[in-house]
Amino acid sequence: MKISLILFGLIFLSSCSSVANSEQQEKALIEPDLLKKDVDYAYSKLKEMHPQLYRYTTRKDLDYRIDSLKQTINKPLTPVQFYLKLQPVITTIREGHLSLTLPFEKIKKSYDGRRLFNYFRYYIKGNHLYIIENKDSIYNIKPGTEILSINDVPAASYISRYRKLISSDGQNTTFKPYYLKDTFFCFFSMENGFLDRVKIETLYNNNKQTYILEREKQIEPQNEKSQNKPASSLKSFYCSANRSFHFLGDDNSIAYINIKKFSNSNSNKFYKETFARIKEAKSSYLILDIRNNYGGSLQEINKLYSYLTSQPFTLIKPSRLNSGFTPLKTNYFKKSNALEYALKGITYPTYFFLKTLHTYKGDDGKFYYKIKADKVTQPNKNAFQGKIFVLINGGSYSASSIISSKLKFDKTATLVGEETGGANDGTVAGFYSYQILPYSKLTLPIGLLLVNPNITLTNSQKGVIPDVPISETLQDIISKNDVQLNWVKNEIAKEKKNLKK
């Protein structure tokens, strides 16, 4: 009992000081010798746990880059400065899920709920940064306006530098513009801190303008009613934002499903109800839109695939581990408060048993981890029987690429759009070991499972290539001209016309 009370007190004191410590660490200079030890620590943990470390790069090349990096560390650096040195080396491994997290929660939440850069939506093409939406008509800035500079620094220089901080699978190039537009100002805040105002220089119709953007003031709730917004309305908004379904046209012959993220939350209910309605409507065509879907749950895409095929299937190959011990290195107690820590301590033997139970050694002498998606799955009784089109782009990543690859290989659907951002042959993810570098305190999440779709691997080092390549332009986005969806609708219209002849 005394030991428990002492442990509780230590955890409580630690949590109370975590914010202050984080701010101190953010500004603290770390000596070069210690930073070099962090580099060695990170590399040793990657070699220990990552099951596919040298797939896209050779050991010789990576050893050279690690050694070269250490030679450039010749003066004390802050954790952010160190991040900007180490992360570009991590990205050369070319494993999309392998990336240092941005240093400290304060940076990731720097918007503080108040807008500065997120007045707008953005688009990146090459080294150009464009505004594509201005919902509040701030300064009446028009969609299509290019941001030339931020605080007198060219936007192109930021883009060039931040692009090197993004990991992508193999030789894929379509993912980075999508991810960079979403993370650009996170990187900017990491470098420049929490700013209340910035100057931007813009270009629209050959006319240059300079504006001052100011962070909006914190808006306080106006009345009791606004403070007690019903939880149900928030929940329904989230669900509708994540998955949606409707029929296109008046005859219900075309079903359209849009999935923004494979979260697995409420997915069984959604697919059950949706495909029951599609079957009842006797729809002939299904359009599955997974553009800008960064992935998520293998369990959900396995369930979804069961509604897209009439044959038994196996979604993925057995998932390989680097060793039989790596499943036990998943930081079971990570981010636990005192109560959670105590409860996890009680349940740890069960956790240990289950992880061990799911780990096995294959006939090839390598270690694997059992996942439901690597077993034969039967098609659902309401599986769609018509023609399927799948919309993909560079923002279709991870689980989105896994299901796209499987659909293409099985010839279950016609893929339309751009090469996916995730690799055709799979990736390393599953569950992670979160390694905290001892001196900089940066976190390196290391994926422990090599997940391959159950296909004949292409070894192309590319994403899933669409059957019908169609790219959208800046003007398409601004004018809301969905060229990829329009192509599918026109193709269906042609088929229907031919059937009537």
From TrEMBL:
Tell me the lineage of the source organism. Answer: Bacteria, Pseudomonadati, Bacteroidota, Flavobacteriia, Flavobacteriales
All copies of domain Tail specific protease, residue ranges: 206-471
Signal peptide residues on this chain, from the entry's feature table: 1-20
Determine if Signal is one of this entry's keywords.
yes
- Report the protein name in the record: Peptidase S41
The record's SUPFAM superfamilies line, in alphabetical order, gives: ClpP/crotonase
Instruction: Alphabetically list the UniProt keywords.
Output: Signal
Q: SMART domains recorded for this chain?
A: TSPc (SM00245)
- Give any Pfam family that matches: Peptidase_S41
Instruction: Please name the InterPro entries in this protein's record.
Output: ClpP/crotonase-like_dom_sf, Tail-specific_protease
What PROSITE patterns would the database entry show?
PROKAR_LIPOPROTEIN
- Classification via Gene3D superfamilies: 2-enoyl-CoA Hydratase, Chain A, domain 1 (3.90.226.10)
